[in-house]
C-alpha cells in the first residue's frame, strides 16, 4: 500500500498535470482568439482598402464627362477658323482607344502643344485656352483622359496611369512634326498627368517645355481631403493606409509612386506653374512644392491671390496670356 506521503505526492502530480492541461487549453484559446482577431482585422482592412481604391480610382465616368458646357459651340466656332482632325490613338499601355482632336490652321507642320484637361472635363474643355496657342505659332492636340468622355479606359490614378496616354500623344506629335517643338499644357488633374509623363524615362527628351495650371501634387493628400467629408467613424489615416496597401496589391503602385511633387524632381525642361493662394482644391503649397522640386533654371511661378481653382484664365485673362507668351518667348 502507498504511504501517506506517496499518496500526497501522487495527488500533487495529478493536480499539476491538470493545471498544465488547463494552462495549455487557455493558451490554445488565447492563440485562437489572437489569430481570429488578426484575420478579422486583415479581412476588414482589405475590405476597407478595396472601398477606398474603388472610390479613389473611379472619380469620374464617361457619362458624367460627356456633356461639357459650350462643347458644341466651341467645336462649331473652331471649325470656322481651324481644321479639326479627329484622331484615335491606340494606347500602348493597355490597348484602349485615346480619342483626340488635332487642331491647326493651314500648316500641319508647326510647333505643337498637347493639352491635358482636368478631372470632370474632356478634350473640349481645353478649347478656350487652345486658341491662345493657335494664334501664336502652335498647333494643338487635345484628348480625352482615362474614363472621360469617349476614352473608356477604367480607373483614374492621379496621373500615374494617365501618363501613358499622354506619352502616346507626345510620340504621335513627334511623328507628324519631328523637327518642331513639342510642349505640354496640363490643368489641375491634367497637371499631375503632365508631370508624371515628363518625368517618365526619356519622355522629356521629346519635349521643349511644360505649363502646369493649378496642378495636383499628391494623390494621398487628395484622397485624405475627399475623406474629410465622410462621417463613418473610422480614422482617415487608417483608411488611407488600407487603401494604399490594396492599391499596391491590385494596381501595382502606391500613393507615393503617384506623388507628382516628388516626380517633378526629375523634370529638367523649362516649366511654368500657375496657381492661386485662394485655391482650396489644389492649394498654393502644391504649385510651390512642384516649382521648388523642378530641376531646371528656366522655370517660373505665376501666382494670383484672388482666384478659386482654375479661374485665372477667366479672371486674369490678359495676365494669363502675357505670362504664357513671355514664358514661351524666353525659352525660345
Write the layout of secondary structure elements.
Blueprint: H1 4-56, H2 71-81, E1 83-90, E2 97-104, E3 111-116, H3 127-134, E4 138-143, H4 162-176, E5 182-187, H5 189-198, E6 209-213, H6 219-227, H7 236-251, H8 260-263, E7 271-276, H9 284-293, E8 299-304, H10 312-315, H11 317-331
Parallel strand pairs: 3-4, 3-5, 5-6, 6-7, 7-8
Antiparallel strand pairs: 1-2, 2-4
Helix pairs in contact: 1-7, 4-5
Describe this structure in words.
With 332 residues, this protein is α/β, with parallel strands linked by helices. It is 47% helix and 15% strand. It has helices at 4-56, 71-81, 127-134, 162-176, 189-198, 219-227, 236-251, 260-263, 284-293, 312-315, 317-331; strands spanning 83-90, 97-104, 111-116, 138-143, 182-187, 209-213, 271-276, 299-304. Strands 1-2-4-3-5-6-7-8 form an 8-stranded mixed beta sheet, sandwiched between helices. Helix 1 (4-56) packs across helix 7 and helix 4 crosses helix 5 (189-198). It is elongated, with a radius of gyration of 28 Å.
Summarize the structure.
With 332 residues, the chain is of the alpha/beta class.
Cα gyration radius (Å): 28 Å
SS class: alpha/beta
Order of helices and strands: HHEEEHEHEHEHHHEHEHH
Share of residues in helices: 40-55%
- The strand line-up of the biggest sheet is 1-2-4-3-5-6-7-8
As a percent range, the share of strand residues is: 15-25%
Note the total helix count: 11
Shape, principal axes of CA atoms = elongated
Note the gap between the termini.
112 Å
Low-confidence parts, pLDDT < 50 over ≥5 residues? none
User: What's the number of extended β-strand segments?
Assistant: 8
The average pLDDT score comes to: 91
Largest sheet: 8 strands, mixed
Amino acid at each position: 500500500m502507498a504511504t501517506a506521503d506517496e499518496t500526497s505526492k501522487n495527488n500533487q502530480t495529478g493536480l499539476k498535470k491538470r493545471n498544465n492541461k488547463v494552462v495549455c487549453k487557455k493558451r490554445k484559446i488565447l492563440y485562437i482568439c489572437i489569430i481570429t482577431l488578426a484575420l478579422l482585422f486583415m479581412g476588414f482592412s482589405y475590405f476597407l482598402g478595396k472601398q477606398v481604391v474603388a472610390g479613389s480610382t473611379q472619380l469620374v465616368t464617361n457619362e458624367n464627362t460627356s456633356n461639357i458646357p459650350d462643347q458644341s459651340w466651341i467645336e462649331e466656332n473652331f471649325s470656322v477658323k481651324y481644321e479639326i482632325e479627329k484622331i484615335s490613338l491606340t494606347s500602348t499601355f493597355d490597348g484602349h482607344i485615346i480619342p483626340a482632336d488635332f487642331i491647326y490652321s493651314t500648316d500641319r507642320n508647326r510647333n505643337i502643344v498637347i493639352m491635358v484637361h482636368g478631372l470632370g472635363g474632356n478634350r473640349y474643355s481645353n478649347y478656350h485656352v487652345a486658341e491662345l496657342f493657335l494664334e501664336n505659332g502652335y498647333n494643338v492636340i487635345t484628348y480625352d483622359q482615362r474614363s472621360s468622355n469617349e476614352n473608356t479606359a477604367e480607373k483614374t490614378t492621379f496621373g500615374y496611369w494617365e501618363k501613358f496616354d499622354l506619352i502616346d500623344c507626345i510620340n504621335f506629335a513627334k511623328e507628324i512634326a519631328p523637327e518642331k517643338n513639342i510642349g505640354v499644357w496640363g490643368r489641375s488633374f491634367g497637371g499631375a498627368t503632365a508631370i508624371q509623363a515628363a518625368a517618365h524615362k526619356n519622355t522629356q527628351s521629346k519635349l521643349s517645355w511644360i505649363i502646369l495650371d493649378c496642378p495636383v501634387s499628391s494623390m494621398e493628400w487628395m484622397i485624405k481631403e475627399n475623406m474629410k467629408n465622410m462621417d463613418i467613424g473610422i480614422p482617415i489615416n487608417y483608411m488611407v493606409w488600407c487603401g494604399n496597401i490594396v492599391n499596391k496589391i491590385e494596381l501595382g503602385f502606391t500613393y507615393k509612386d503617384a506623388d507628382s511633387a516628388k516626380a517633378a524632381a526629375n523634370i529638367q525642361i523649362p516649366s511654368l506653374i500657375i496657381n492661386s493662394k485662394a485655391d482650396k482644391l489644389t492649394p498654393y503649397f502644391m504649385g510651390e512644392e512642384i516649382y521648388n522640386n523642378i530641376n531646371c533654371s528656366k522655370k517660373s511661378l505665376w501666382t494670383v491671390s484672388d482666384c478659386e481653382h482654375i479661374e485665372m484664365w477667366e479672371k486674369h485673362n490678359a495676365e494669363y496670356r502675357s505670362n504664357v507668351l513671355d514664358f514661351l518667348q524666353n525659352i525660345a
